[in-house]
Specification:
single chain, alpha+beta, two-stranded antiparallel sheet, two-stranded antiparallel ribbon, 3 helices, 37% helix, elongated
Length: 115
């Protein structure tokens, strides 16, 4: 099955916004603090579509016209591995089921049992 999935995925594009100093834009979230621009790509905001990245560039060009305009960097990725999580998920479900059964047996308290 994994070969079929990999064959369907040709390429995926991602976008990051970079300023003239070579720093990447970082999303801080609601009420966030810290720098808006970071040096490390791993902590940068990565956009799945180009529209929000364009919006960020437009925002900075509009509100900070005295600075050079940021640019959009396109990152392309190819799928080369499918990670099968079946064993890990089955183990976690068995552990949760055992925990719920033990709670029910030992205390008779509320327990969430699905299925």
């Amino acid at each position: 099955m994994s070969e079929e999935v990999l064959a369907k995925i040709q390429s995926v594009d991602f976008y990051v916004v970079m300023n003239s100093d070579g720093q990447f834009f970082r999303a801080k979230g609601y009420g966030g603090s810290g720098n808006s621009w970071v040096d490390d790509l791993a902590t940068a905001r990565i956009y799945a579509k180009i529209g929000p990245a364009r919006n960020t560039v437009t925002f900075f060009a509009t509100h900070y016209p005295e600075y050079p305009r940021p640019v959009i960097i396109k990152l392309s990725a190819n799928a080369n591995e499918v990670i099968d999580e079946k064993e890990r998920v089955d183990k976690a479900l068995a552990r949760k089921k055992k925990r719920d059964e033990d709670r029910l047996k030992n205390r008779g308290h509320w327990v969430w049992v699905k299925g």
